[in-house]
From TrEMBL:
Residues 20-31 have a biased composition (Polar residues). This is S24 family peptidase. InterPro entries: LexA/Signal_pep-like_sf, Peptidase_S24_S26A/B/C. Residues 1-33 are annotated as: Disordered. Residues 23-101 form the Peptidase S24/S26A/S26B/S26C domain. SUPFAM superfamilies: LexA/Signal peptidase. Gene3D superfamilies: Umud Fragment, subunit A. Residues 8-17 have a biased composition (Basic residues). It comes from the Bacteria.
Amino acid sequence: MENSKASHINKSKKSYRVSRPTQTGFSSPATHYTEPRIDLNDVLVENQSATFFVRVIDEAYEEFNIFEKDVLIIDKSLTPKDNQLIVVIQDDAFKIIRFSKTLNIEFQLWGVITYVIKYVL
């Protein structure tokens, strides 16, 4: 057998654990800030350059369960499919309609609604 030197495998020095305070008594109320925040752009947006967040300003779209102060996430790069909610420009105004291949109205597609973030207060 040949003499060869064995090398040790070192553990990674990265730690993904939240460090615990070493003080006694009550912990700081700011300890939850050490955790990463949820970024809506990472979670809900597929195409950042073509996605817009729009806040609804009235109750005109109750039929779609979209109310005042809800936030719509709209992707302009998507092609609408049957039964999806879309934002269109019609009569020089933005409107929300449910897409269907059998629609008999004229409109200009602005984008496809991918998420509705509800305002609950």
